[in-house]
Amino acid sequence: MNRQEFIRKLELELFKLPKEEVKDAIDYYNEYLDDAGIENEAAALKELGSPSRIATQIKADFAVKQLSNQGNGSNAEGRKGISAVWWVILGLFTAPVALPLAVAGGLLAFCILLTVALLVIAALLCVGAFFLSGIVAFSVGIYVLFIDFANGLFAVGVGLTFVGATVLLALGIILAAKGLVRFTARRMNEKRQLKTGRTEEKADE
Questions:
Q1: Terminus-to-terminus CA distance in the chain, angstroms?
Q2: Could you tell me which residue, 150 or 195, shows the higher pLDDT?
Q3: Residues 72-81 as b or e (16 or more Cβ within 10 Å = b)
Q4: What angle in degrees, to the nearest 10, is found between the helix axes of 51-71 and 84-94?
Q5: How confident is the model at residue 98 (pLDDT cuts 50, 70, 90)?
Q6: Are 54 and 71 a contacting pair, CB within 8 Å?
Q7: How confident is the prediction for the chain on average, in pLDDT?
Q8: What is the count of structural domains for the chain?
Q9: Which of 51, 65, 76, 132 allows an S-S link to 10, with CB 3.0 to 4.6 Å?
Q10: Are 37 and 173 a contacting pair, CB within 8 Å?
Q11: Torsion of the alpha carbons at 180, 183, 188 and 189, rounded to the nearest 10
C-alpha cells in the first residue's frame, strides 16, 4: 500500500466524522509521512498499520472528546454529528475483532443504554407525580388560607417543599444518567483499546 492509497482509505473510513476532524487527521498523517521522508515512507506506512485500525482509534477518541464536551457543558460542540455513544458502538463494529464479539458488544451497549433510558423515564415520571402533588398542595393551601390560616400555610409549605425537592431530584437524575452514559462509553472504549492492543501483539509475534 502506498501513501495515496493509505490516505484515501483513511478518508473513506472517516467520512462520517465532521469535516474538520477528518481534515485534522489527514493533515496529521500527511505531516507524519512527510517527516519520515520518501526513502522511509514504506517503513512508516508499515509501522502505522491499517487505515481501518487508525480510523477506529480516531472515532473512539472523537467519542471521548464529545462526551467530555457534553460533561463540561459544551452542548453546541457535543451535539455535532452522531451521538458520542454511538461513535463508541461504531468503533466496536469497525475494530479488528471477530464479528460475534462485535455484535455481542453492540447488543450489550444497546441493552445498557435502553435500561438507563427506561430507568430515567420511570424516575422522571415519579418525580413528575410528586411535582404535580406539590402544585396541588400549594393551590389548595392558597385556597385554605382564607378559611384556616394555619392549615393553609402548612399546605402551602408542603407544596413548595415538594416542588423544590422534585426539581432538585430531577436535576440529580439527569446528571446521574449522563455520568453513567459517559462512564459506560469510556469503559467500552478501554476494552476496545485493550482488545486492539492484544490483536496487534499477536500480529507482531
A1: 22
A2: 150
A3: eeeeeebeee
A4: 160
A5: very low
A6: no
A7: 75
A8: 1
A9: 51
A10: no
A11: 140
Mean pLDDT of 44-73: 75
Q: 134 is in which domain, residue-wise?
A: 50-204
When pLDDT is cut at 50, 70 and 90, the band that residue 78 belongs to is very low
What's the full length of the chain, in residues? 205
Within a domain: 85: yes
C-alpha cell at 168: 432538585
Place of cell 402551602: 156
The DSSP code sequence of the chain is --HHHHHHHHHHHTTTS-HHHHHHHHHHHHHHHHHH-GGGHHHHHHHH--HHHHHHHHHHHHHHHHHHHHHTT-HHHHTSSS-HHHHHHHHHHHSSS-HHHHHHHHHHHHHHHHHHHHHHHHHHHHHHHHHHHHHHHHHHHHHHHTT-HHHHHHHHHHHHHHHHHHHHHHHHHHHHHHHHHHHHHHHHHHHHHHHHHHHHHHHH-
Q: Which residue's C-alpha cell is 455535532?
A: 80
Inside any domain, residue 87: yes
Separation of alpha carbons 134 and 167, rounded Å: 11
Higher per-residue confidence, 186 vs 135: 135
- Domain assignment of residue 66, yes or no: yes
- Is 72 part of any domain? yes
- What pLDDT is attached to residue 14? 85
More confident residue, 77 or 180: 180
